Protein backbone atom coordinates (compact mmCIF):
# COMPACT_ATOMS: atom_id res chain seq x y z
CA UNK A 1 0.00 0.00 0.00
CA UNK A 2 1.09 3.56 -0.62
CA UNK A 3 2.77 5.34 2.25
CA UNK A 4 1.29 8.67 3.20
CA UNK A 5 1.94 11.30 5.82
CA UNK A 6 -0.25 10.59 8.81
CA UNK A 7 -1.69 13.88 10.13
CA UNK A 8 -1.58 14.18 13.92
CA UNK A 9 -4.72 15.96 15.11
CA UNK A 10 -5.86 17.08 18.57
CA UNK A 11 -9.35 16.81 20.05
CA UNK A 12 -10.06 20.51 19.37
CA UNK A 13 -13.26 21.22 17.48
CA UNK A 14 -11.28 22.50 14.48
CA UNK A 15 -9.18 19.32 14.35
CA UNK A 16 -12.20 17.05 14.81
CA UNK A 17 -13.86 18.94 11.92
CA UNK A 18 -10.73 18.15 9.87
CA UNK A 19 -11.02 14.48 10.85
CA UNK A 20 -14.69 14.51 9.79
CA UNK A 21 -13.72 16.07 6.44
CA UNK A 22 -11.16 13.33 5.87
CA UNK A 23 -13.75 10.65 6.67
CA UNK A 24 -16.19 12.28 4.24
CA UNK A 25 -13.46 12.19 1.58
CA UNK A 26 -13.15 8.40 2.04
CA UNK A 27 -9.96 8.51 4.09
CA UNK A 28 -9.29 6.40 7.21
CA UNK A 29 -8.73 8.14 10.54
CA UNK A 30 -7.75 6.73 13.94
CA UNK A 31 -9.57 8.19 16.93
CA UNK A 32 -9.80 7.51 20.68
CA UNK A 33 -12.75 5.79 22.30
CA UNK A 34 -13.15 4.95 25.99
CA UNK A 35 -12.16 1.34 25.16
CA UNK A 36 -9.29 1.43 22.65
CA UNK A 37 -8.33 3.59 19.66
CA UNK A 38 -10.46 2.81 16.60
CA UNK A 39 -9.53 3.03 12.92
CA UNK A 40 -12.54 4.78 11.40
CA UNK A 41 -13.99 4.82 7.90
CA UNK A 42 -17.30 5.95 6.41
CA UNK A 43 -19.36 2.78 6.95
CA UNK A 44 -21.39 3.43 3.78
CA UNK A 45 -18.36 3.45 1.49
CA UNK A 46 -16.91 0.21 0.14
CA UNK A 47 -13.72 1.99 -0.88
CA UNK A 48 -13.17 3.57 2.54
CA UNK A 49 -13.91 0.34 4.42
CA UNK A 50 -11.59 -1.59 2.10
CA UNK A 51 -8.79 0.76 3.16
CA UNK A 52 -9.34 -0.25 6.80
CA UNK A 53 -8.98 -3.95 5.99
CA UNK A 54 -5.89 -3.21 3.91
CA UNK A 55 -4.18 -1.02 6.52
CA UNK A 56 -4.79 -3.58 9.28
CA UNK A 57 -4.06 -6.66 7.16
CA UNK A 58 -7.38 -7.94 8.50
CA UNK A 59 -9.00 -11.12 7.14
CA UNK A 60 -12.01 -9.78 5.29
CA UNK A 61 -14.37 -12.33 6.87
CA UNK A 62 -14.05 -10.60 10.21
CA UNK A 63 -16.79 -7.93 10.35
CA UNK A 64 -16.47 -4.44 11.86
CA UNK A 65 -18.35 -2.48 14.53
CA UNK A 66 -20.27 0.61 13.44
CA UNK A 67 -20.12 3.66 15.71
CA UNK A 68 -22.90 6.24 15.93
CA UNK A 69 -23.55 9.27 18.12
CA UNK A 70 -26.72 8.04 19.83
CA UNK A 71 -29.30 5.26 20.04
CA UNK A 72 -31.79 7.13 17.84
CA UNK A 73 -29.23 7.01 15.02
CA UNK A 74 -28.51 3.33 15.69
CA UNK A 75 -32.19 2.55 15.13
CA UNK A 76 -31.93 3.75 11.52
CA UNK A 77 -29.62 0.83 10.75
CA UNK A 78 -30.83 -2.08 12.88
CA UNK A 79 -34.10 -3.69 13.93
CA UNK A 80 -34.63 -2.67 17.54
CA UNK A 81 -35.97 -4.87 20.33
CA UNK A 82 -36.94 -4.65 24.00
CA UNK A 83 -33.58 -6.06 25.10
CA UNK A 84 -31.77 -3.56 22.87
CA UNK A 85 -33.75 -0.71 24.41
CA UNK A 86 -33.04 -1.90 27.93
CA UNK A 87 -29.30 -2.29 27.33
CA UNK A 88 -28.99 0.98 25.39
CA UNK A 89 -30.71 2.89 28.19
CA UNK A 90 -28.50 1.27 30.82
CA UNK A 91 -25.12 1.40 29.06
CA UNK A 92 -25.01 3.79 26.07
CA UNK A 93 -22.93 5.75 25.59
CA UNK A 94 -20.39 3.21 26.83
CA UNK A 95 -18.30 0.08 26.19
CA UNK A 96 -21.13 -2.15 24.93
CA UNK A 97 -21.70 -3.33 21.35
CA UNK A 98 -25.04 -4.80 20.30
CA UNK A 99 -25.42 -7.20 17.36
CA UNK A 100 -28.85 -6.77 15.80
CA UNK A 101 -30.55 -7.64 12.49
CA UNK A 102 -29.92 -5.08 9.74
CA UNK A 103 -32.84 -2.98 8.60
CA UNK A 104 -33.88 -2.82 4.96
CA UNK A 105 -32.32 0.11 3.12
CA UNK A 106 -29.61 0.49 5.77
CA UNK A 107 -26.96 1.67 3.31
CA UNK A 108 -24.07 0.08 5.24
CA UNK A 109 -21.30 -1.35 3.05
CA UNK A 110 -21.41 -5.16 2.89
CA UNK A 111 -17.68 -5.11 3.65
CA UNK A 112 -18.55 -3.89 7.16
CA UNK A 113 -20.74 -6.89 7.94
CA UNK A 114 -18.67 -9.34 5.87
CA UNK A 115 -21.94 -10.33 4.25
CA UNK A 116 -23.83 -11.16 7.48
CA UNK A 117 -27.42 -9.93 7.85
CA UNK A 118 -26.63 -8.52 11.28
CA UNK A 119 -24.75 -5.42 12.36
CA UNK A 120 -22.54 -4.80 15.40
CA UNK A 121 -23.20 -1.25 16.58
CA UNK A 122 -22.24 0.94 19.53
CA UNK A 123 -22.38 4.48 20.90
CA UNK A 124 -18.96 5.34 22.36
CA UNK A 125 -18.73 7.47 25.50
CA UNK A 126 -15.41 9.18 24.75
CA UNK A 127 -16.02 12.92 24.22
CA UNK A 128 -13.70 13.17 21.18
CA UNK A 129 -15.32 10.13 19.55
CA UNK A 130 -18.76 11.48 20.29
CA UNK A 131 -17.96 14.90 18.83
CA UNK A 132 -16.38 13.37 15.73
CA UNK A 133 -19.51 11.26 15.15
CA UNK A 134 -21.71 14.34 15.56
CA UNK A 135 -19.62 16.36 13.12
CA UNK A 136 -19.37 13.56 10.54
CA UNK A 137 -23.07 12.82 11.04
CA UNK A 138 -22.82 9.39 9.45
CA UNK A 139 -21.99 5.88 10.69
CA UNK A 140 -18.29 5.13 11.22
CA UNK A 141 -16.99 1.57 10.91
CA UNK A 142 -14.03 1.16 13.24
CA UNK A 143 -12.04 -1.86 14.34
CA UNK A 144 -9.27 -1.40 16.86
CA UNK A 145 -6.45 0.64 15.27
CA UNK A 146 -3.74 -2.05 15.30
CA UNK A 147 -2.35 -4.41 12.69
CA UNK A 148 -4.59 -7.49 12.70
CA UNK A 149 -3.76 -9.98 15.46
CA UNK A 150 -1.47 -7.63 17.37
CA UNK A 151 -1.96 -5.87 20.73
CA UNK A 152 -4.80 -3.36 20.73
CA UNK A 153 -3.87 0.33 21.02
CA UNK A 154 -4.77 2.43 24.06
CA UNK A 155 -2.64 5.46 23.13
CA UNK A 156 -1.80 7.38 19.95
CA UNK A 157 1.79 6.15 20.25
CA UNK A 158 0.55 2.53 20.08
CA UNK A 159 -1.45 3.34 16.94
CA UNK A 160 1.48 5.04 15.24
CA UNK A 161 3.83 2.20 16.14
CA UNK A 162 1.65 -0.15 14.08
CA UNK A 163 0.03 2.03 11.42
CA UNK A 164 2.05 5.23 10.88
CA UNK A 165 2.09 6.06 7.17
CA UNK A 166 -0.80 3.67 6.45
CA UNK A 167 -3.60 5.98 7.66
CA UNK A 168 -4.57 9.55 6.75
CA UNK A 169 -4.74 10.93 10.30
CA UNK A 170 -5.00 10.21 14.00
CA UNK A 171 -6.82 12.18 16.68
CA UNK A 172 -4.54 12.06 19.74
CA UNK A 173 -6.45 12.58 22.97
CA UNK A 174 -4.32 10.61 25.41
CA UNK A 175 -4.89 7.23 26.99
CA UNK A 176 -8.17 5.29 26.72
CA UNK A 177 -9.80 5.14 30.16
CA UNK A 178 -11.35 1.63 29.98
CA UNK A 179 -8.53 -0.05 28.06
CA UNK A 180 -10.39 -3.18 26.89
CA UNK A 181 -12.58 -3.47 23.79
CA UNK A 182 -16.33 -3.23 24.20
CA UNK A 183 -18.34 -6.19 25.42
CA UNK A 184 -20.34 -7.63 22.51
CA UNK A 185 -23.87 -8.91 23.12
CA UNK A 186 -25.74 -10.71 20.33
CA UNK A 187 -29.46 -9.93 20.15
CA UNK A 188 -30.12 -11.23 16.66
CA UNK A 189 -30.88 -14.86 17.50
CA UNK A 190 -32.83 -16.16 20.47
CA UNK A 191 -31.98 -14.64 23.84
CA UNK A 192 -29.08 -12.29 24.53
CA UNK A 193 -25.70 -13.99 24.03
CA UNK A 194 -22.28 -12.88 25.19
CA UNK A 195 -20.17 -12.88 22.00
CA UNK A 196 -17.07 -11.19 23.43
CA UNK A 197 -16.25 -10.28 27.03
CA UNK A 198 -14.98 -6.72 27.28
CA UNK A 199 -14.93 -3.39 29.05
CA UNK A 200 -18.42 -3.73 30.50
CA UNK A 201 -18.56 -6.59 33.01
CA UNK A 202 -20.99 -9.38 32.25
CA UNK A 203 -22.68 -9.28 35.66
CA UNK A 204 -23.69 -5.67 35.09
CA UNK A 205 -25.36 -6.64 31.82
CA UNK A 206 -27.16 -9.52 33.51
CA UNK A 207 -28.42 -7.18 36.24
CA UNK A 208 -29.81 -4.79 33.63
CA UNK A 209 -31.50 -7.63 31.72
CA UNK A 210 -32.74 -9.35 34.86
CA UNK A 211 -31.44 -12.74 33.68
CA UNK A 212 -28.28 -14.61 32.72
CA UNK A 213 -26.58 -14.26 29.34
CA UNK A 214 -25.94 -17.34 27.28
CA UNK A 215 -22.41 -17.83 25.95
CA UNK A 216 -21.66 -18.61 22.35
CA UNK A 217 -19.37 -21.61 22.10
CA UNK A 218 -16.04 -20.45 20.79
CA UNK A 219 -16.05 -22.70 17.75
CA UNK A 220 -19.72 -22.17 17.01
CA UNK A 221 -19.79 -19.34 14.59
CA UNK A 222 -17.80 -17.27 12.34
CA UNK A 223 -19.64 -14.40 13.89
CA UNK A 224 -17.83 -15.51 17.03
CA UNK A 225 -16.05 -12.32 16.87
CA UNK A 226 -12.40 -11.46 16.58
CA UNK A 227 -12.19 -14.57 18.44
CA UNK A 228 -9.51 -16.07 16.32
CA UNK A 229 -7.57 -17.88 19.00
CA UNK A 230 -4.27 -16.07 18.60
CA UNK A 231 -5.04 -12.38 18.89
CA UNK A 232 -3.87 -9.37 20.86
CA UNK A 233 -0.46 -10.98 20.59
CA UNK A 234 2.89 -9.40 21.46
CA UNK A 235 5.93 -10.60 19.49
CA UNK A 236 7.35 -12.19 22.61
CA UNK A 237 6.15 -15.49 24.10
CA UNK A 238 3.59 -15.16 26.89
CA UNK A 239 3.23 -17.54 29.90
CA UNK A 240 0.15 -17.25 32.10
CA UNK A 241 -0.58 -17.81 35.81
CA UNK A 242 3.04 -17.22 36.78
CA UNK A 243 3.80 -16.76 40.47
CA UNK A 244 7.29 -15.46 39.65
CA UNK A 245 9.58 -14.88 36.67
CA UNK A 246 11.79 -17.72 35.42
CA UNK A 247 15.34 -16.83 34.30
CA UNK A 248 15.21 -14.55 31.25
CA UNK A 249 11.51 -13.70 31.68
CA UNK A 250 9.97 -10.37 32.61
CA UNK A 251 6.97 -10.46 34.93
CA UNK A 252 3.70 -8.61 34.48
CA UNK A 253 2.28 -8.57 37.99
CA UNK A 254 -1.05 -8.04 39.70
CA UNK A 255 -1.48 -7.08 43.34
CA UNK A 256 1.28 -6.87 45.89
CA UNK A 257 4.25 -8.63 44.24
CA UNK A 258 7.77 -7.98 42.93
CA UNK A 259 7.58 -7.63 39.15
CA UNK A 260 8.76 -5.61 36.15
CA UNK A 261 5.42 -3.85 35.65
CA UNK A 262 2.25 -4.16 37.73
CA UNK A 263 -1.28 -4.08 36.28
CA UNK A 264 -2.54 -2.86 39.66
CA UNK A 265 -0.59 -2.83 42.92
CA UNK A 266 -3.82 -2.78 44.87
CA UNK A 267 -5.41 -5.63 42.90
CA UNK A 268 -8.02 -3.35 41.29
CA UNK A 269 -9.44 -4.97 38.12
CA UNK A 270 -10.63 -1.69 36.58
CA UNK A 271 -7.12 -0.27 36.88
CA UNK A 272 -5.66 -3.53 35.54
CA UNK A 273 -7.94 -3.37 32.48
CA UNK A 274 -6.86 0.20 31.76
CA UNK A 275 -3.18 -0.80 31.99
CA UNK A 276 -3.29 -4.18 30.23
CA UNK A 277 -2.52 -3.30 26.60
CA UNK A 278 -0.15 -0.46 27.49
CA UNK A 279 1.88 -2.73 29.73
CA UNK A 280 1.96 -5.48 27.09
CA UNK A 281 3.15 -2.95 24.49
CA UNK A 282 5.89 -1.80 26.85
CA UNK A 283 7.07 -5.26 27.84
CA UNK A 284 6.95 -6.38 24.22
CA UNK A 285 9.56 -3.70 23.43
CA UNK A 286 12.04 -5.58 25.63
CA UNK A 287 12.11 -8.69 23.42
CA UNK A 288 12.06 -11.13 26.31
CA UNK A 289 9.46 -13.75 27.16
CA UNK A 290 6.64 -12.33 29.29
CA UNK A 291 5.27 -14.11 32.36
CA UNK A 292 1.90 -12.89 33.66
CA UNK A 293 0.58 -13.22 37.21
CA UNK A 294 -2.83 -14.86 37.80
CA UNK A 295 -5.80 -12.50 37.42
CA UNK A 296 -9.01 -13.30 39.32
CA UNK A 297 -11.80 -14.58 37.06
CA UNK A 298 -14.48 -12.12 38.16
CA UNK A 299 -15.84 -8.78 36.91
CA UNK A 300 -13.48 -7.27 34.33
CA UNK A 301 -11.01 -10.05 35.19
CA UNK A 302 -12.94 -12.33 32.79
CA UNK A 303 -12.25 -10.03 29.83
CA UNK A 304 -8.63 -9.49 30.93
CA UNK A 305 -8.11 -13.27 31.07
CA UNK A 306 -9.78 -13.67 27.67
CA UNK A 307 -7.26 -11.25 26.14
CA UNK A 308 -4.34 -12.85 27.98
CA UNK A 309 -5.30 -16.36 26.81
CA UNK A 310 -5.31 -15.09 23.22
CA UNK A 311 -1.99 -13.29 23.71
CA UNK A 312 -0.50 -16.57 24.96
CA UNK A 313 -2.08 -18.84 22.31
CA UNK A 314 0.12 -20.58 19.71
CA UNK A 315 0.47 -18.25 16.73
CA UNK A 316 0.44 -18.75 13.05
CA UNK A 317 3.83 -17.67 11.66
CA UNK A 318 3.44 -14.15 10.44
CA UNK A 319 5.29 -11.91 8.08
CA UNK A 320 7.08 -9.04 9.67
CA UNK A 321 6.50 -5.63 8.24
O1 LIG B 1 -14.24 -1.31 21.82
C1 LIG B 1 -14.40 -1.70 20.67
O2 LIG B 1 -15.31 -2.45 20.35
C2 LIG B 1 -13.38 -1.20 19.63
C3 LIG B 1 -13.55 0.30 19.50
C4 LIG B 1 -12.72 0.89 18.39
O3 LIG B 1 -14.90 0.63 19.34
N1 LIG B 1 -13.56 -1.87 18.39
C5 LIG B 1 -13.22 -3.17 18.22
O4 LIG B 1 -13.36 -3.60 16.94
O5 LIG B 1 -12.84 -3.87 19.10
P1 LIG B 1 -12.70 -4.94 16.40
O6 LIG B 1 -12.87 -4.89 14.92
O7 LIG B 1 -11.33 -5.08 16.88
O8 LIG B 1 -13.65 -6.05 16.92
C6 LIG B 1 -14.94 -6.15 16.36
C7 LIG B 1 -15.55 -7.45 16.78
C8 LIG B 1 -14.93 -8.59 16.03
O9 LIG B 1 -14.63 -9.59 16.97
C9 LIG B 1 -16.04 -9.02 15.08
O10 LIG B 1 -15.97 -10.37 14.78
C10 LIG B 1 -17.29 -8.64 15.85
O11 LIG B 1 -16.94 -7.43 16.45
N2 LIG B 1 -18.43 -8.40 14.98
C11 LIG B 1 -18.61 -7.42 14.11
N3 LIG B 1 -19.79 -7.55 13.45
C12 LIG B 1 -20.37 -8.64 13.96
C13 LIG B 1 -21.62 -9.31 13.70
N4 LIG B 1 -22.47 -8.87 12.79
N5 LIG B 1 -21.89 -10.41 14.42
C14 LIG B 1 -21.03 -10.87 15.36
N6 LIG B 1 -19.85 -10.28 15.63
C15 LIG B 1 -19.52 -9.19 14.95
MG1 LIG C 1 -9.35 -5.68 17.46
Structural commentary:
The protein is an alpha/beta fold and 321 residues long. The chain has two domains: 7-215, DHBP synthase (Alpha-Beta Complex); 238-312, Threonylcarbamoyl-AMP synthase, C-terminal domain (Rossmann fold, 3-Layer(aba) Sandwich). Helices cover 30% and strands 16% of the residues. The chain contains ten helices and 15 strands. It has helices spanning 13-24, 46-56, 71-74, 82-91, 110-113, 127-136, 156-163, 202-209, 269-284, 301-312, and strands at residues 7-9, 29-31, 38-42, 65-67, 96-101, 118-122, 140-141, 169-171, 183-186, 193-196, 214-215, 238-239, 250-253, 261-262, 290-292. The strands form two sheets. Strands 1-8-2-3-7-4-6-5-9-10-11 form an eleven-stranded mixed beta sheet, sandwiched between helices. β2 (29-31) and β3 form a beta hairpin. α1 packs across α6. The radius of gyration is 19 Å and the shape is globular. 50% of the residues are buried. Threonylcarbamoyladenylate binds at residues 33, 35-36, 38, 62-65, 97, 99, 113, 116, 118-120, 142-144, 181-182, 184, 195-196, 223, 225-226.
- Backbone structural class: alpha/beta
Biggest sheet, spatial arrangement of strands: 1-8-2-3-7-4-6-5-9-10-11
- Rg, nearest Å: 19 Å
Strand content: 15-25%
Instruction: Pick out the low-confidence regions.
Output: 219-226
Percent of residues in helices: 25-40%
| Morphology | globular
| Number of DSSP-assigned strands | 15
CATH architectural arrangement of the largest domain: Alpha-Beta Complex
